[in-house]
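User: Can you fold this complex?
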Amino acid sequence: MDLELAKRLSQPADTKIILCVMDGLGGLARAQTLRSELEAASVPNLDRLATRSEVGLTTPVGPGITPGSGPGHLALFGYDPYQFDIGRGVLEATGIDFELGPDDVAARGNFCTLGPNGAITDRRAGRVPTEVSTGLVERLRAIKLDGVETFVEPVRDHRFVLVLRGAGLGDEVSTTDPQREGVAPLPATGTGDQSQRTAELVNDFVRQAHAILADQPAANGLTLRGFAKYPSIPAFPETWGVRAAALAVYPMYRGLAKIAGMTPLACPAGMPEQLRVIRERWDDFDYFFVHYKKTDAAGEDGNFEAKCHALQEFDAFLPELLALNADVLMIAGDHSTPALMAAHSWHPVPFLLYSQFCREGNAANFNEQECLKGSLGVFPAVDVMPLAMAHALRFQKYGA
Amino acid sequence: MDLELAKRLSQPADTKIILCVMDGLGGLARAQTLRSELEAASVPNLDRLATRSEVGLTTPVGPGITPGSGPGHLALFGYDPYQFDIGRGVLEATGIDFELGPDDVAARGNFCTLGPNGAITDRRAGRVPTEVSTGLVERLRAIKLDGVETFVEPVRDHRFVLVLRGAGLGDEVSTTDPQREGVAPLPATGTGDQSQRTAELVNDFVRQAHAILADQPAANGLTLRGFAKYPSIPAFPETWGVRAAALAVYPMYRGLAKIAGMTPLACPAGMPEQLRVIRERWDDFDYFFVHYKKTDAAGEDGNFEAKCHALQEFDAFLPELLALNADVLMIAGDHSTPALMAAHSWHPVPFLLYSQFCREGNAANFNEQECLKGSLGVFPAVDVMPLAMAHALRFQKYGA
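Assistant: Here's the predicted assembly.
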């Protein structure tokens, strides 16, 4: 919905909303068993809750569109993902609490392995451990570029962030990642004067970096992508009139929440810790975004059993989540990651909203086929937030 | 979806897509039996495929909107039918391979029967045969208009095409067809200077034509409608990144495909011939649009049994279609033509998409009621193409 209208309709209420995002929740059935991950897993708590909830399937961005994690989450937060497009560099930088200035251009970096002919032999440098990549990042800080300040920051494993700071930089810079092995990293190119100049600086950075990394056994090269400046998006708390907290461990999701204006709470990994922090800070916030990563990681690995296991692990925490007695509890996914495809996909994502004002549908379980029978049907993920506001009695009547 | 975005997301793949359009596919149940044409017909192959496919019902243009064949097809090709409105005159002219210039105005013509008082007694002149109407068209070529070149071309039965060629013509010209019998053809009127002048030329043409046709027993009059210039629409092959072929026999559907930038393949009438040509040209194209007319013709005639028969005839060809092993096979309709109404209607149209990445729903058969239980629900026809692209793995991920 229009965010100005959302702001106008929102009203104060003493109600709590929880959005649990199971990353990559949706799946596909294996041909042998005709069962998806959710159908194969034993998730009795989710199943029971589904019979008492409004359930359906969310279309993250649009029919046939496979979303990245950014658009997938923004939609669940109520932002039209076509209108608000946030670059990966900004997500990564914000996620590690790097304070981006308005003129900065940020990029997501990957260490990679280059063969003797300069072609990439491993796009993730054997997933070089964080301790090692942190040391490499420190060496890259010696690089000087003409007329701009340079920041290199470690993220996790093979991933790092590059930020260029200076006047007149542009972010319409192409990726240097060819997205496959066997070919050399691409030169960056820019669209328009500012981005062309930025691309030249980026290429200079890569040249110097490759010289510095030449003595490394695995991480002797790098790729850069997702060049972006900090976006201006309406703040989530002001738009919906809720004090919003994010319980996310992975940098990118913390970054997303922060860009939306939520407060990321420091939290060790694991649902028990996330639940503990929610309980501790219960009175300080009206809205809690809880991110659960394991479902997506298993799906991306093509590991059907691991994804079932991740679903079961989440299911076991559901009674504790329910015990918080939030006025609105939502179980959602930012996109599907079917283990069968070992990748994000476009398929709609099971969704459940539980409140005392639920209109029940005909779903007997929480899975892809049963959610089709729910009272919400297949609907755009961007509608999730208005529904939550309604069930939390935080929306006034529209019109007289 | 936005066609610029479609172009940006599309990626090459070695996959094939087939779209079969059963014209006027959707129907309505007869009160006596409570069965629609699809429910009354025996279509075991479609039924079986539906249980393994993503099924739903497409809304061709919008709820309550009864589409002509143009918008109905354009939507299935991914064009928003509200944004891309192609006049009937252009469709007919293009369908018979008449090369329209950028300033030409084309109209669809019908021979009709006029009574002694000038009122229409038969809007189709007893469906005068093509051999006769071709002769009449030749006589109409004698007509001279002030300052413009005139082309008259036969189409089929009582239908022909009129093209006016000259500078400064407009296509906002009203129909001369009153759409009912018992009244005289209407004078054409134009909106704006150019279209006013064009309307005057059209009225002059009609006057001269009626004089020429006065000695005819049946086809002693004519009506003109669908005045239009050649539209500029983004080319289908460039937008979606597919080499696209059209297997359509009727001129209008060939015309539609051509306007969209597809390659119409020469093909004798009949599904066996269409299938043969697809097999012959399999390697030359990535996308095949196959048009099946009989369902609509029977529906328009109000012949319930004939429509059932047409559905059964199509069903019998389905195994051969499946044997082509396309990566994505879709069975769709451009609109409903319930035999009960003997006309196009606004009702959503059964739809089926089969690929190896299907998420099955709960539909047990391929008909109006069961398709409601499918994984796609009721959805806009304009979303069909993005879905096909996704299932053909021809779309990149959107956003980071």
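Chain B touches chain A through 29 residues (CB under 8 Å). The longest helix of chain B spans residues 193-213.
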